């Protein structure tokens, strides 16, 4: 039951008190309690300091997808993108290269750019009966079938094409065995078949397929397979006149090989595991470096489920088996590093194929899902029709800055051409001090001068990407091509604890806009709490406000009620000088915005009320209702309440400071003290 207002100024912890004060030392002072919190990179700053905007900044886009965190520098966090290039120039984003069809007459399996008879050509291996190798001298504008009937129909695919000593070598594969597993040509018209020589060297009856090849200036190494359980690695230093067995075994399949000096690095596939090791050609010794368990799988699965690359003197291991993996081995230190901290399928729904594709182009490793420049892993561009399938790189032509791809949607060959016409990047869920509301004010961004057809647009979402709201941007058709920075405001009163940010780049297909820096101005909006400084009388036999009633408690007891709450750090009820109280008339649902009570007498026309632990703001009242209610206000939670529950404008507070003074000449027989309190709303 409330302390009677006609007798006391205020009530604390259920006890009424009389305020004490003079004009120079007021009895009561109400002010806002300070709110502090750690601001990343800015130290401790009062959230209510509105003299400067708070900033969220993104100026470095070079972080890519790295280690266990999808984290960039500055304040941003990568989420996903399509058709966006962040790797061409650190510190900017732009549209990814466009794609043009280069071959669409048959299913494309592999590609290669290399020398034949002192001339460089682009080659592709395609399916058919029999499969074939096509050659282009003009980067895919026209093609010539150079294998003709040299490959038998017992082969069903081209597995690899490689140049060695100015000749072209072609590996094929079959579902059982093929009599034309490995061929080579010195002129592009006549072919030598080495299948029989290799089976003789290995003492095999037949060969199912060539799975991988690599070469140095003197020797060609070839990985082959028989059935689903036997593997072999053979080599030749005289263009196939003689073959030597490097390694052979069973219960594993050779996936890929890479020769570096005298070290032949090998990737094997066993039943539900991958093994990476090195064969020393000078000592004829093999050493296992590492093995990985892979989900599911058997030796009857596709053998080319991984690929090795040599980048900056290190061996990069990519696997598309069950889940994708990306590792890097440093021969100088013997260390093996997981470049992602997780498998590829934790970012992308499924691997594109059991076949692992990839090429190194101008110092960057292009993979179906990712790109790696030796320092940072990036997300790659999506397929030609912008679906979630990722294009598969099969050949690199650095002289014309083109990568050639197989598109899994149609199995055709595509090449870089111009730029995508649009692309999006969702680069953050901005949540500095996530529990606090912020008012989002504006985005300031810098960019290269636009040209015709170029546009940059920003969007935000405050509902976890269910809907996106356009903020604005820059458009050549509106803003012209002279400016390099712009500020755009959020919609008025955009308040949210956290938001997602997305940027969309649009171009004309021939050029791309370039976005460089982004910063967002916002202000934190904490749930404001109040702080009181009170002076109260703690006298014996004190006269109360009606002028005739005396306080029954002695001064010492009045003080100790306050001290006990202070010592015990107790949350207590506080009735301020404007305290009013009533009760609910009927049960109250958590969503109701009109509240019916016994009476609203004593309450102001608009203000706040408290029911149990819920605070409610209202904008109007009648004799028995509060209207225009905002439920769950000031950091509380809207909930249901029962008929008869107390409705008041009281507070829950902590006593944060306590001091007392005795008046000059106090009577020793009568307890007289003026107590100064600081109260902090909780």
Please give the structural blueprint.
Blueprint: E1 10-12, E2 15-19, E3 28-32, E4 36-39, E5 43-46, E6 54-58, E7 80-82, E8 84-85, E9 93-95, E10 97-103, E11 108-116, E12 119-126, E13 132-136, E14 144-145, E15 157-164, E16 167-173, E17 182-185, E18 192-193, H1 195-202, E19 209-215, E20 220-226, E21 230-236, E22 244-250, E23 253-260, E24 263-270, E25 273-280, E26 285-293, E27 306-311, E28 314-319, E29 325-330, E30 335-338, E31 359-361, E32 364-366, E33 370-372, E34 377-379, E35 392-397, E36 402-406, E37 413-419, E38 422-430, E39 437-447, E40 455-461, E41 469-475, H2 476-479, E42 485-489, E43 495-496, E44 499-506, E45 514-525, E46 530-539, H3 555-567, E47 572-575, E48 581-583, E49 595-596, E50 607-611, E51 614-618, E52 620-621, E53 625-627, E54 646-648, E55 651-661, E56 672-681
Antiparallel strand pairs: 1-2, 1-47, 2-46, 3-46, 4-5, 6-45, 7-38, 8-9, 9-45, 10-37, 11-12, 12-13, 13-14, 15-16, 16-17, 17-18, 19-20, 20-21, 21-22, 23-24, 24-25, 25-26, 27-28, 28-29, 29-30, 31-32, 32-33, 33-34, 35-36, 36-37, 38-44, 39-42, 39-43, 39-45, 40-41, 40-44, 46-56, 47-55, 48-54, 49-53, ...
